[in-house]
Specification:
Layout lengths: L8 E5 L20 E2 L2 E2 H11 L4 E6 L4 H6 L4 H9 L3 H9 L5 E6 L6 H6 L2 H4 L4 E4 L3 E3 L6 H11 L2 E7 L9 E7 L5 E9 L10 E9 L2 H7 L11 H10 L7 E5 L4 E3 L3 H13 L5 H13 L1 H5 L1
Parallel strand pairs: 1-4, 1-6, 4-5, 8-12
Antiparallel strand pairs: 2-3, 6-11, 7-13, 8-11, 9-10, 10-12
Helix pairs in contact: 8-9
Family: Belongs to the UDPGP type 2 family.
Enzyme class: transferase
GO molecular function, one term: UTP:glucose-1-phosphate uridylyltransferase activity
């Protein structure tokens, strides 16, 4: 099935409590934790906009007002920076205001990722759309979202992003059973399992936080029972789409071999900050020199 429609809207679920980062996230949304000098959520919005998805809907919850404030104008701050001649800082602040058209809707009762996506139904309507999870950052040098949108436009249905993970880690992810196609990075998804036991996993191809979805997913989610963890699982709805033959059904996978950073785990979050800081032109040289000295120094070894 080939479709002429191409997604123009992005949905970013951001209602989670961020319990793995407490107490830092007691009053600060986890999405606002800084990755070098930008909050993690800004990287995700920038990725969506760069892929042509400049209509962004964030699914938020209680205590998430800081997200709206970050992407809004702060005229007092801008005027102060301008008066002080801090032009580069002013441009950096204004960049978050002008990324795209950002909307917000609250997920009053956090009942899982599937429920968060369902909260976007009225805004999305009957169009294909993308879902980007804020915990997964994709290196901007490894653009993958445009490829997913191309595949969806060609094949129709929904497209998931897959990453090969060690077998002992498949229980942390949704996992896909797949069949090859004539494109090396594209597979047909025949089944999906949410967080399977390693010995029962259909493959080591894990779903990571990028989806290009058919609007048919909404009707499926409305009838998807609570699954693992007592939540409405998006993976369960995708399993129905993968095995059905109705309009908008069918699931294709794009296998990702680029750089992906997990900011939802404390250790991986720290690795992400270090890696991105070390690769910056403005910070990298001095930071790498200090890091080499620190890691090789006696203070580090004694610690």
């Amino acid at each position: 099935m080939t479709t002429d429609a191409r997604a123009t809207k992005a949905v970013i679920p951001a209602a989670g409590l961020g319990t793995r980062f407490l107490p830092a996230t007691k009053a600060t949304p986890k999405e606002m934790l800084p990755v070098v000098d930008r909050p993690a959520i800004q990287y995700v919005v920038e990725e969506a906009v760069a892929a042509g998805l400049d209509d962004v809907l964030m699914i938020t919850g209680r205590s998430k007002r800081a997200l709206e404030d970050h992407f809004d104008r702060n005229l007092e701050l801008e005027h102060s920076l301008q008066a002080k001649g801090k032009d580069s800082t002013l441009r950096a602040v204004q960049a978050s205001n002008d990324l795209g058209t950002i909307h917000y809707v609250r997920q009053g009762d956090p009942r899982g990722l599937g429920h968060a996506v369902l909260c976007a139904a009225q805004h999305v309507g009957h169009e294909p759309f993308a879902v980007l999870l804020g915990d997964d950052l994709i290196d901007p040098r490894d653009e993958i979202l445009p490829r997913m949108l191309d595949v969806q436009q060609k094949h129709g249905g929904s497209v998931v992003l897959l990453l090969e993970v060690p077998q002992d880690q498949v229980h942390l992810y949704g996992c896909a059973a797949v069949e090859p196609t004539d494109e090396t990075d594209v597979v047909r998804v025949t089944g999906l399992v949410e967080k399977p036991d390693p010995e029962e996993a259909p493959s080591n191809l894990a779903l990571i936080g990028r989806y290009a979805l058919s609007p048919a997913v909404f009707e499926i989610l409305r009838h998807t029972p609570y699954g693992r963890g007592g939540e409405i699982q998006l993976t369960d709805a995708l399993q129905t789409l993968a095995t059905g033959d109705g309009d908008g059904h069918g699931v294709t996978g794009v296998v990702f071999r680029g750089r992906r950073y997990d900011t939802g785990d404390r250790l991986d979050y720290l690795k992400t900050v270090v890696r991105l800081a070390a690769e910056r032109d403005d910070l990298g040289p001095d930071f790498r020199a200090w890091l080499t000295e620190y890691v090789g120094g006696t203070d580090f070894q004694q610690a």
